[in-house]
Structure formats: C-alpha cells, structure tokens
Amino acid sequence: MKYRNLGQGLEVSAIGIGCMPMIQDGNITYGKVDLGVAERTIHEAIDLGITLFDTAEMYGPFTNEELVGRAIKGRRNGLVIATKFAMRWDGNRPTGIDGSPENARRACEGSLKRLGIDTIDLFYQHRVDPNVPIEETIGGMAELVKEGKVRYIGLSEAAPDTIRRAAKVHPIAALQTEYSIWERDVEAEILPICRELGIGFIPYSPLGRGFLTGDIRSLDDLPANDWRRNDPRWSPENFPKNMAIVEAISSIAAAHGVSNAQIALAWLLAQGENIVPIPGVKRLETMRDSAKAPGVELSAIDLAALSSAAPVGATAGPRYAAAGMATVKR
C-alpha cells in the first residue's frame, strides 16, 4: 500500500475505506449487508495496509460506529479513525443541524464510546450549521483537541469562505466533499484553497455511489429500499444519459486490464498528492479491488479522455435532491 499526507502531517493510506455502506437496516442503505462480512472486510483492509476508516454518527444512525468499533478492537494501533457530527437527536431521529460546541462535545463523547477508542483521529463537522459561526464551531472542536479526545479537525462540504475562516481558528487537516469523474465542482475553488492552506482532500462517493463501476446497469438491479433510488443521477430519466460516462471508463479499464473502479480511483489520485479517496465498501471483493487502485498508472492521454468524458457540469442531474443540495457548500 502507498501512503499520502493530509494536512498537519497526518499520514494515511492512499486509499481509505468509507464504512457507510456497512449498514444493515437504517437511514442510508446500499443493498443487502452481511455484518459479519463487513467486519471481515475491515480486518482484511487492515492486513492490506489500509489505515483510514471513515464513519459518522449519522450512519445508521449510530450503528455504523458500533460496527467499526467491533472490527478494530485489538487492532487499533496505526489506524486513522475518522467520524463526524452535525445533528441534534431525539433518540434516533435527527431534529436539525447543530454546530454548537456543546453538540460537538456530545457527539464526540458518544462516538468515542461506540468506537471503543480513547481518541478520534479525525473529527469532522459533517455539515456546516448556517446559524452558528464557523469560528464558534471550530473553537469548540479545538477544545476537544486540547483535551486529547480528538487528534485532528476536519470539515465536510464547506464553502470556500468557511474553510478560510475555520483555518484561522485551528488548523484543518482534511476537507471531505464529494468528488469523482462525474462530480467535479470542487476543482474551481475548493481544491485550490485546500492546496493553498495545506489541507488534505478526502473525496467521498468517488465511484458515484457505485454507478461508475458499471456493475449496475439498471434501476432494477437495486433493492426497493436502496437509498440510490432517491438520487437524481440514478433517476429513470438521467440513468441512461450517464451511462456514457461509464462506457468511457470501461474502455480505458479494458485497455489496462483492470476494473472500472480502479480507473475511477486512479483518476482521482492523479488530481493531487493531497487527495485520498474513500470508496464505500461492504464486501471483501470490492475492497480488494479498490485497494489496487494506487498501483494503476494512467497516461496523460488516459486522464484527458476521462476528463473529457465528463466535463464539469455535464453529468445529467444534480448530485442530491433539493434538500440535500441545500446543505452543501455552506
């Protein structure tokens, strides 16, 4: 496994693992999940040298952190465990975004308990609260760093000005935002700011929630409760239009004798040394495949062909429905 540095000298494997799909029943499901297989997938990922594992209290909610905690028990050393907070809760029901220092502390304490660890390596604000100044939120998170409960602070889906303001309060180690061949909005402003400020960039959904792998050829391939049925890019209208992007990836994958997923991840890795994708996995086979991506070398011609297949803004449909889009870039 190859390794890269995020901000503040935080070293992680060049590919991380997004643990969100490892939810059996809950608020965000991606097909059927065998929790035993999910735990074994984390174990084997560690054996392969993967060190970055990403979860959040929102996933489940709460159950995904518990699964990660079980999987890393006895194997914590050398791992970078990342989790996130954003919501207020009434039991398992989110009641709104809350970026207050008090909510950050509540979430941190709960995450530490569920994960079974003493320190969260990378603690993100999952979504920015427009009603709480980012300086106040980061100030509260910085207190958790001082107390040894958090090692590094991150942001997710933050706007350029928010990133700059946050970095003035406390160093930001990583920004997590959606980025892939078919979602390139970050290239104009976000990526340059991260490079300028020495912030690592973590693309989530680097495989377009599985679309770019080419493994799903129709909405009929998805279970009835699959979250992706709510995704505008997966709609009956947009799905066939976006298959052209998959075909472009498939052509280059065939030339290299590797999977679509490896090509899509290699394209992201080529966009900057501070970029560490976290493909979501729940099975051994997909994890093993994605773990090979850092070894794929794409030529300048390959990179140009992939970029031209999905220019900025050309993908059919927004990446979230209206409610979801209202919570990003704040």
- Total helices: the number is 11
CATH class: Alpha Beta
Structurally, how many domains make up the residues?
Answer: 1
Mean pLDDT: 96
Order of helices and strands: EEEHEHEEEHEHEHEHEHHHHH
What characteristic shape results from the CA principal axes? globular
Q: Tally the beta strands.
A: 11
Calculate Rg over CA atoms: 19 Å
CATH superfamily: NADP-dependent oxidoreductase domain
The helix-and-strand class reads alpha/beta
Poorly predicted runs are none
Question: What does this 3D model show about the protein?
Answer:
The strands form three sheets. A seven-stranded parallel beta sheet has the order 3-4-5-8-9-10-11. Strands 1-2 form a two-stranded antiparallel sheet. It has a two-stranded antiparallel sheet with strand order 6-7. The relative contact order is 0.15. It is globular. The two termini are 35 Å apart. 36% of the residues lie in helices and 15% in strands. α4 packs across α5. The chain has a single domain, classed as TIM Barrel. α1 (35-47) links the parallel β3 (17-18) and β4 (52-54). The longest helix has 18 residues, at 239-256. The chain is an alpha/beta fold and 330 residues long.
